[in-house]
Write a structure and sequence with these properties.
Layout lengths: L1 E4 L8 E4 L2 E4 L4 E4 H4 L5 E7 L5 E3 L6 E8 L4 E7 L5 H10 L6 H6 L3 E7 L8 E4 L9
Parallel strand pairs: 1-10
Antiparallel strand pairs: 2-3, 3-4, 5-6, 5-7, 7-10, 8-9
Length: 138
């Protein structure tokens, strides 16, 4: 995880365990993989007047951190069996020659390509930290 300190002063404590980013000894925990989408996602961690940490909170008084989560990366995987939908079936059939003998076609080894999401690589996550000198976390 890339960590950037945006200003001088005391920062919120954090710990990354797998894909879970924990702030202030369990006060707020984010499962980063849960927020990942087909596009980069940025979540702002703020603090309210009562000392609570919030994700994209509307009643915020203090900026604490910003978490930038990269877009999902995919890989094509060859899978045994027939495709589950017509689009995939047509793509596979277009790549192979149609057999004249239907018996040979039925016994042929069938595979198709599926697009699978890769697990989140936390090395690509960026955490930006603001000073929390004037903010007391509960």
């Amino acid at each position: 995880m890339n960590v950037i300190e945006l200003n001088e002063g005391r920062k919120v404590e954090y710990e990354l365990r797998g894909t879970k980013l924990d702030f202030a000894d369990g006060t707020l925990t984010m499962n980063l993989a849960k927020y990942q989408r087909d596009y980069p996602v940025t979540k702002t961690i703020t603090g309210d007047a009562e000392g609570n940490l919030l994700i994209d909170g509307s009643d915020s008084r203090f900026y604490v951190a910003e978490v930038e989560i990269p877009a999902i990366e995919y890989e094509d995987v060859e899978v045994e069996g027939e495709a589950e939908n017509a689009t995939m079936t047509e793509a596979v059939e277009g790549e192979t020659e149609a057999a004249e003998d239907t018996t040979a076609e039925d016994t042929a080894h069938k595979t198709h390509i599926e697009r699978k999401a890769k697990p989140l690589n936390t090395d690509d996550v960026t955490l930006r930290l603001w000073s929390i000198e004037d903010f007391d976390i509960l």
